[in-house]
């Protein structure tokens, strides 16, 4: 699995990432797997529930940014232009959040 951050301490993932191969790869790299076990796993694996709660915050943020149609449909043809629109959407989201509190 290719990761953006070269040396993350933890990987937050949903049940779709609960495989022995992924877990072994993360252990080999020295990364803590914060992945809840699937319900059909014979031996339930413990995970950091408090750290897993932060995954929800990230997903909600991505969902809010995708509410901007231009970002969700990726109208921009180049990565640079897309990153610019993504930055504008994140800034607008931040301004809305600050003004409501």
UniProtKB/TrEMBL annotation:
Residue spans crossing the bilayer: 79-95
Keyword list, A-Z: Membrane, Transmembrane, Transmembrane helix
Pfam family, one: DDE_Tnp_1_2
UniProt domain Transposase DDE: residue ranges: 13-95
Protein name: Transposase
Species assigned in the record: Bradyrhizobium centrolobii
Taxonomic placement: Bacteria, Pseudomonadati, Pseudomonadota, Alphaproteobacteria, Hyphomicrobiales
């Amino acid at each position: 699995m290719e990761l953006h951050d070269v040396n993350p301490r933890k990987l937050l993932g949903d049940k779709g990432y609960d495989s022995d191969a992924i877990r072994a790869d993360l252990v080999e790299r020295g990364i803590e797997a914060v992945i809840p076990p699937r319900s059909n796993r014979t031996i339930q694996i413990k995970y950091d529930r408090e750290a897993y709660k932060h995954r929800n915050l990230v997903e909600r943020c991505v969902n809010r940014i995708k509410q901007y149609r231009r970002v969700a449909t990726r109208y921009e043809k180049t990565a640079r232009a897309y990153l610019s629109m993504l930055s504008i959407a994140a800034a607008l989201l931040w301004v809305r959040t600050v003004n409501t509190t």
